[in-house]
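Field: COMPLEX_INPUT
Field: COMPONENT_COUNT = two
Field: RESIDUE_TOTAL = 584
Field: MODE = joint
Values follow.
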Amino acid sequence: MKRKRKTSSIIFHIACILFCLTSLYPLLWMISSSLKESQKVFVDAISLIPSSVHLDNYTRGWKGFAGNGFMLFFKNSFFVTISSTIGVLMSCSTIAYGFARVKFKYKNFWFATVILTMMLPSQLVMIPQYVMFHKLNWINTYIPLILPKFFGGSFFIFLIMQFIKTIPFDLDEAAKIDGCSSFRIFYNIILPLIKPALITAAIFEFYWSWDDFLGPLIYLGRPKMYTVSVALRLFSDPGSQTDWGAMFAMGVLSLIPAITVFFIFQKYIVDGISTSGLKG
Amino acid sequence: MKKDFKKFRSHFIENYSGSIYILPWIIGFTFFTLIPLLCLFYFAFTKYDLLSAPQFIGFDNFKDIFTSDPKFFTALKVTFKYVATAVPLKLFVALMVAILLNQKHKFIGLYRTAFYLPSIIGGSIAVAIMWSRIFSRDGAINSIIYLVFGFKPDISWIADPKTALASLVLLSVWQFGSPMLIFLAGIKNIPESYYEAAAIDGANSFQRFFKITLPLLSPIIFFNLIMQIISGFMTFTQGLVITNGGPLDKTLFYQLYVYRKGFEQFNMGYSAALSCIMLVIVAIFTAMVFKSSSAWVYYDGKGE
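Field: COMPLEX_OUTPUT
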């Protein structure tokens, strides 16, 4: 019996390590390619250990293109991402509280619109939204990327609502008897209690706006305004000879914010996905 | 008169004042979803290049799409092929790995982290560009094949019409981490006593999987299926960055075609009509999956 257990354990670990290799190999490959000499990236394509470490890929890449360095692109990305995250947190927590705890007419109707929007991919209304922002003269500004976030996102509203529902109603009742207004109940009681849900929402909004490509691609026309994802894409322009070493160096840098957030907040991410089915 | 107003006011406050909390949603839904949706239906019946006013042309866009646009059918075919292979494969791998990880062993947490990492970064441009290089003629995949099988295939996986879509499917399957986490949480919620009872009755591990795990997990599988199908239909970035729709339109995803018509050819009306068709498809699929769910989704406690 004991022997059988040991062999099954070994098989388990071998299977897991094989899966780990497939999961991590592409990532490690990119990191090692960013350290190889640019011409050598594809000569010894398979190896993960560069024969000699070349950090100059990073300095070359950091200069960017058309006079705009990656410093600027990172600044733009952080600006859009952080503004969006603040917007989502402020709007979604308030809206979720309204749906979960406050009584008003036509609540069910409005809640149905939240569920409906969750099922409707926003890309489908990309054309009319673009026309609208074009008419408002907001193309080549960050407004189309940030402003909608201040009016709630269906996924996060749903996530935070589910969380508020787990808080006992007695707490609200007690506060009400003590003369708390519904806003004070929200601000002083509910808000501190839903911190884990807010952190989960913040992490995912951070990921999604950091990785967003279609939005910046259609709304930002000037290289000066590019976010990292659009800049990276133009960096590997098929027309010109691509500097792969520098390209991968900037690619690795672009992943650092997401990976850092991942390792700091891992617990919240796992909990958030497990409880709400949020996709990563 | 004044009394009436007072009465109206208190009535209004009682019934509607709570809506103030969801006011941002009401405004946002109206301006960023409802009005654009109505405009989408209107634009679909116009010729519109963004510079001059939209010109009403009736059903001409739809007529063109269905009668004289082979690219529309190509895009549709590519997208369906992609969804029909990538979604089941990804969910299957996610389920298998979740079951694998639902054991008591060392390093489970470490493995889980490693498997989930691709999901975190998978949507980024950096990964898309990396994928295009790994699957290129002189990329790492061909080197690995050489290492294992001893011959070097002389093809570029992303530039060969036969394999281009498959390499994008692999990119999607590679990101099995988030459905895996959801499945894992679902499996952990199944009461241990069910398995104990089954073990006493002499059920083997296959029977336990098909009679307990799978039925109890089905609502979660179902939810994931809907979400993955819808997001599969919206695939865009990979098609643009990795293969740019090519070779020979073999990876011309529907959303990529919509983008080209709208933002490269400035044919907003045509593009809106294409979006309308996709809207109907998404709606049909969502309804279909919902409807069929009663046949195979097992909700605990409802019936025997």
